[in-house]
C-alpha cells in the first residue's frame, strides 16, 4: 500500500521509474551502470548494487520520522537519534539515511564523516525510494575521501545509480566532473561530460555553465574556444541574476563570488557586497559570514557591521563564522582584541570538527605570543587539524618536527607532514621544505628539489620564498637555477612587496659586491628602507655601509649634522673617528662625540663608548665604567650593548664572570637579530663554555649567523662537523661549511680546511691539491699557522710533493711571526746541527731567540739551509 507519506516523498523524488522500483523491488546492478570502469569493484562494494528485497518506510513509521524532525528543530539531537535508531533496528533504509545526515552535517553532534558513510552504505545496500539520495551522498564522501578511503570507481557507480533513480540533485554535475578528466579506475570521457553539463546548462544550471566555460578556457579539458567561454559566462551571469532577482539566496552568494578576487569580474567589491547583503538579509548564513569577513578585510571595513553579521552567523550555528570571528578577536584584526571570547569561539568550532579552528588554536598555543604557551595542547590541536585534512595544520606540525620545536626533531616525519601540506597546495610548506633542502642541515641537501619547491612557492605569491630563492641565486647556491641577475630581480620584487629581509640582503650584497658590483649608494638606499621597514639588523648594516662610503663629503655632512645637534650624527661621527673610516683615526674625538651622542639621548652610543673604556682606547682601561655604560644601554633596549654586556659577563672579561646573566643578555640580543649574540651564544652552547652544552641550540644560532654572512660562524659549524663536537662527524657538512667560510675570506677557515684536506683529518678524505690551494691562499694572506703547516708538509714531501726550499721559506716566515710550532721546529733543527738533539723544548726556544738576536740575517739564512737539509721534522 502506498501511503500519503510515500506519495509525498516520491513526488520529491520525481521519478516514475522510482515508483516502479518501489512497487516491484527491482534493482540496478553494477554491470548495468556504465562503460567507463577500468577494473572490477571490490566484492563488498558490489553488494551495494546487487539488489535484495525492497524495504520502504511504511505509514506506521511516519511518527518516528516526524518525531526526529521535531527533535532536531528543537535542538534535541539525541532524541532525534534515538527515534531514528528505532527505524534502523528494523532495517529501514530511510532510518539509516536520516541518521547519516545528522553525522554528515554535524547537526548537534561533532561531524563524523566515517559514521555517516557507514550509515549511507546501509541505506544504499537495500532497495528503497531513498536509495538514490543515499547513493549520491555516499558518492560525495567517497570521491572526496571524506571519512572513507577515496575510491573513484565506487563513486562513479554510485553516481550512475543516483542518476538512474533520478534524484533531481547534483548527480549529473558530479559525474560530469569525474568523467571530464577521469579518475583511478574510471576512464575519462570528455564528450560524455560535456553532454551531462550541457543538459544541466540547458535547464538553466548556472554552475554547469561555469564548468563549461572553464572547460573551453586555456588549460581546460575541452578544445580551447574563447567565444564559447564568453558565451557561457554571460549565460551564467544572466541565470544567476534571474535566480537572485527571484529571491534565491544561494544565487546571490554565487553572484557575489563572481566579483571576488579570482572570480569572473574581480575587483568590484561594492557589487560583491551588495549581493552578499541581499543574501544575508534573506537569511543565507554563509553570506552573513562572507559579509562579515569582507568587512574585516577591507581597507574601508566597518567593524560594527562585521561584528553584527558574524554574530548573527554564529547564532545560527555557522562554524565558519565562529572561526572568522574567533580569529579576529584573538588577533585584534579589525576588532578590539578579546582573547577569552575569541578562544571560546575557536574551541566551539574545533569541538564541531572544524580543521581550521584546530590549526588556529594550535598556532595560538604554540607561539605563546597572545596567550600563555601550552605546547602539548597546541600539538594536539595541530594533530587533529592535520588528521581532518587542513594543510595549515600539517604545515605547522611539519615545521615543529623539522625544528624540534616542543617535539623531538624528526626529519622523516617533518618531510611527510610538509609534503602532505604541499599536496594540498600550501605555499609556506613549499617554502619551508625548500629552504630545509637548500640548507641541508636537518634534511639531506637537495638543491634541485629545493629550487623546484621555492619556485612553485614564488608562483603562488609567497614573498619570503621569493627572497630565499633570490638570495640562493645571488650567492650561487643554485648554479643550475638561473643567474645572479635573476637573483637580484627576485630580491627586488620581494623588497618592493615589503619584505625587509630582501632589502637587507640587497643592501649587504651591494656593499660587499656579492653577485653584483659594489655600489655603496644603492647599498645605503636598500638598508635605509630595511631599517624603516623594521628589520633589526638593518641599522648595523647601514652603519657599515656609511662607514664604507667614507669619503670626505660624507664626513663633512655628518659633522654638520652632529654640530647642529643631531644625536645620531654625533654617534656616527664618533664611530667614524674610532674606526678611522673616512677620517683620520682619533680616539679622543671618538670618545668626545660618542659621549655627546649618549648625553643627547642616543643610547646606541653607549656600546662603542663602553668598548673604548673596556679596551683602553686612548684612555686608561676602566672595565667598571664600560659595564655601566653597556648595562644602561642594554636596559634601554640597545641590542649592541646587550651583546657586549653578555660577552663580558659570560667570559669574565674585566669583571666577575656571571654566565647566567651573560647568557640572558645574549639571548635578548639574539632575539633582536644581533649576529654577535648569535655567534657568542652558538659557540658557547656548542662548546659548553660556561654554560651547559646544547649542540642543537648552538648549531641553530650559528646557522642563523652564517646564513647572514658571518664567516666565523660558518667556520665553527664546519669545525664541529669535522671534529664531531656535539654532533656526529660529517665530512660533507664539514667541507660545505668550511668552504663557505673560506670563500668568504676567512684565512683561519682556509687553514683548517686546507690542513684537513691535506692530511685527511676526521671524516674528510684526502684531497691534497685542493688542500694545498687553501693553505697557500691563507699563507699568502699572512696566516702564520697556514705558513707553518704548509712549510712542514712541503719539507716532509708526504702528502704534498716535496719542495724543501719553498717549505723552508714558509716555516721560517711563520717562526719569525711568532708561531710556536714553527719556532720549535727551527730550534730543534738548529740545535741538532750542533749535536744538541737532547735539549729540552724550553732550552731549544731560548737558544733560538739568542741565535736570532745575535746573528740576524746570517742566522735566518743558516736556518733556511738547515731546514732544507734536515731529513725529517717531527714538530
What does this molecule look like?
The protein is mainly α and 875 residues long. The chain contains 47 helices and no strands. Helix 12 (206-216) packs antiparallel against helix 13 (226-245), helix 35 (623-635) crosses helix 36 (639-651) and helix 38 (675-687) packs parallel to helix 40 (711-723).
How far the N terminus sits from the C terminus, by CA atoms, comes to: 110 Å
* Spans where pLDDT lies below 50 across 5 or more residues: 1-31
Class from helix and strand fractions: mainly alpha
- Name the overall outline: elongated
Task: Please summarize the sheet with the most strands.
Answer: none
Strand content: under 5%
Q: Give the rounded overall mean pLDDT.
A: 84
Number of strands: 0
Contiguous helical run count: 47
Q: Helical amount among residues, as a percent range?
A: 55-70%
Please tell me how large the radius of gyration is: 38 Å
Amino acid at each position: 500500500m502506498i501511503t500519503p507519506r510515500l506519495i509525498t516523498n516520491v513526488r520529491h523524488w520525481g521519478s516514475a521509474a522510482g515508483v516502479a522500483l518501489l512497487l516491484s523491488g527491482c534493482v540496478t546492478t553494477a554491470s548495468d551502470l556504465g562503460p567507463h570502469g577500468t577494473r572490477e569493484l571490490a566484492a563488498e562494494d558490489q553488494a551495494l548494487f546487487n539488489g535484495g528485497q525492497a524495504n520502504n518506510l511504511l505509514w506506521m513509521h511516519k511518527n518516528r520520522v516526524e518525531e526526529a524532525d521535531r527533535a532536531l528543530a528543537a535542538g534535541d539531537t539525541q532524541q532525534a537519534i534515538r527515534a531514528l535508531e528505532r527505524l534502523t533496528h528494523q532495517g529501514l533504509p530511510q532510518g539509516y539515511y536520516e541518521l547519516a545526515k545528522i553525522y554528515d552535517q554535524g547537526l548537534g553532534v561533532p561531524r563524523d564523516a566515517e559514521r555517516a558513510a557507514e550509515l549511507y552504505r546501509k541505506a544504499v545496500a537495500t532497495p528503497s525510494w531513498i536509495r538514490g539520495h543515499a547513493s549520491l551522498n555516499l558518492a560525495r564522501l567517497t570521491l572526496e575521501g571524506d571519512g572513507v578511503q577515496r575510491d573513484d570507481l565506487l563513486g562513479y557507480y554510485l553516481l550512475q545509480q543516483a542518476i538512474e533513480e533520478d534524484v533531481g540533485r547534483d548527480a549529473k554535475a558530479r559525474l560530469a566532473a569525474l568523467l571530464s578528466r577521469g579518475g583511478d579506475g574510471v576512464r575519462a570521457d570528455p564528450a560524455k561530460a560535456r553532454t551531462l553539463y550541457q543538459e544541466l546548462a540547458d535547464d538553466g544550471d548556472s554552475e554547469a555553465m561555469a564548468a563549461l566555460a572553464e572547460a573551453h578556457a586555456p588549460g581546460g579539458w575541452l578544445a580551447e574556444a574563447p567565444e564559447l567561454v564568453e558565451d557561457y559566462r554571460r549565460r551564467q551571469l544572466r541565470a544567476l541574476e534571474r535566480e537572485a532577482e527571484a529571491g534565491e539566496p544561494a544565487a546571490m552568494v554565487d553572484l557575489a563570488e563572481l566579483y571576488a578576487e579570482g572570480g569572473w569580474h574581480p575587483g568590484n567589491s561594492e557589487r560583491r557586497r551588495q549581493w552578499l547583503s541581499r543574501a544575508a538579509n534573506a537569511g543565507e548564513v554563509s553570506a552573513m559570514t562572507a559579509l562579515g569577513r569582507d568587512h574585516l578585510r577591507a581597507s574601508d571595513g566597518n567593524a560594527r557591521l562585521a561584528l553584527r553579521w558574524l554574530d548573527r552567523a554564529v547564532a545560527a550555528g555557522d562554524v565558519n563564522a565562529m572561526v572568522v570571528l574567533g580569529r579576529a578577536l584573538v588577533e585584534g584584526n579589525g576588532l578590539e582584541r578579546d582573547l577569552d571570547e575569541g578562544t571560546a569561539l575557536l574551541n566551539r568550532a574545533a569541538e564541531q570538527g572544524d580543521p581550521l579552528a584546530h590549526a588556529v588554536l594550535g598556532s595560538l598555543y604554540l607561539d605563546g605570543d597572545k596567550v600563555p604557551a601550552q605546547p602539548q595542547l597546541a600539538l594536539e590541536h595541530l594533530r587533529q587539524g592535520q588528521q581532518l585534512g587542513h594543510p595549515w595544520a600539517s604545515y605547522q606540525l611539519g615545521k615543529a618536527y623539522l625544528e624540534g620545536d616542543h617535539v623531538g626533531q624528526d626529519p622523516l616525519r617533518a618531510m611527510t607532514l610538509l609534503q602532505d601540506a604541499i599536496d594540498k597546495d600550501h605555499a609556506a610548506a613549499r617554502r619551508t621544505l625548500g629552504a630545509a633542502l637548500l640548507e641541508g642541515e636537518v634534511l639531506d641537501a637537495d638543491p634541485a628539489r629545493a629550487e623546484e619547491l621555492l619556485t612553485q612557492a614564488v608562483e603562488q605569491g609567497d614573498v619570503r620564498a621569493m627572497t630565499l630563492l633570490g638570495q640562493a641565486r645571488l650567492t650561487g647556491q643554485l648554479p643550475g637555477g638561473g643567474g645572479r641577475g635573476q637573483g637580484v630581480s627576485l630580491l627586488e620584487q620581494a623588497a618592493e612587496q615589503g619584505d625587509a629581509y630582501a632589502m637587507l640582503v640587497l643592501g649587504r650584497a651591494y656593499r660587499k659586491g656579492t653577485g653584483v658590483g659594489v655600489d655603496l649608494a644603492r647599498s645605503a638606499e636598500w638598508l635605509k628602507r630595511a631599517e624603516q621597514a623594521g628589520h633589526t639588523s638593518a641599522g648595523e648594516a647601514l652603519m657599515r655601509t656609511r662607514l664604507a662610503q667614507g669619503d670626505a663629503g660624507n664626513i663633512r655632512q655628518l659633522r654638520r649634522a652632529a654640530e647642529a645637534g643631531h644625536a645620531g650624527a654625533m654617534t656616527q661621527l664618533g664611530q667614524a673617528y674610532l674606526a678611522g673610516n673616512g677620517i683620520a683615526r682619533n680616539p679622543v674625538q671618538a670618545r668626545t662625540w660618542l659621549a655627546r651622542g649618549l648625553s643627547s639621548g642616543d643610547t646606541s652610543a653607549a656600546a662603542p663608548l663602553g668598548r673604548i673604556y673596556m679596551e683602553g682606547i686612548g684612555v686608561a682601561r676602566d672595565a667598571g665604567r664600560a659595564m655601566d655604560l653597556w648595562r644602561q644601554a642594554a636596559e634601554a633596549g640597545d641590542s649592541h650593548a646587550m651583546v657586549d654586556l653578555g660577552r663580558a659577563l659570560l667570559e669574565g672579561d674585566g669583571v666577575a664572570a656571571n654566565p647566567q646573566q651573560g647568557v640572558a643578555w645574549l639571548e635578548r640580543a639574539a632575539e633582536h637579530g644581533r649576529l654577535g649574540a648569535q655567534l657568542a651564544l652558538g659557540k658557547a652552547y656548542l662548546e659548553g663554555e660556561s654554560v651547559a652544552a646544547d649542540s642543537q641550540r648552538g648549531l641553530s644560532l650559528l646557522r642563523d649567523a652564517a646564513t647572514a654572512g658571518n664567516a666565523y660562524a660558518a667556520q665553527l659549524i664546519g669545525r664541529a662537523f669535522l671534529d664531531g663536537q656535539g654532533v656526529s662527524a660529517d665530512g660533507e657538512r664539514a667541507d660545505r661549511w668550511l668552504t663557505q667560510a673560506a670563500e668568504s675570506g676567512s684565512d683561519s677557515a682556509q687553514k683548517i680546511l686546507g690542513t684537513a684536506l691535506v692530511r685527511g683529518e676526521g671524516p674528510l678524505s684526502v684531497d691534497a691539491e685542493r688542500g694545498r690551494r687553501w693553505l697557500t691562499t691563507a699563507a699568502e694572506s699572512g696566516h702564520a699557522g697556514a705558513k707553518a703547516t704548509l712549510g712542514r708538509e712541503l719539507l716532509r714531501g708526504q702528502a704534498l710533493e716535496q719542495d724543501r726550499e719553498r717549505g723552508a721559506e714558509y716555516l721560517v716566515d711563520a717562526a719569525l711571526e711568532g708561531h710556536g710550532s714553527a719556532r720549535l721546529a727551527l730550534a730543534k733543527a738548529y740545535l741538532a746541527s750542533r749535536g744538541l738533539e737532547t735539549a729540552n723544548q724550553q732550552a731549544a726556544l731560548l737558544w733560538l731567540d739568542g741565535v736570532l738576536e745575535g746573528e740576524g740575517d746570517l742566522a735566518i739564512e743558516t736556518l733556511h739551509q738547515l731546514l732544507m737539509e734536515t731529513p725529517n721534522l717531527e714538530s
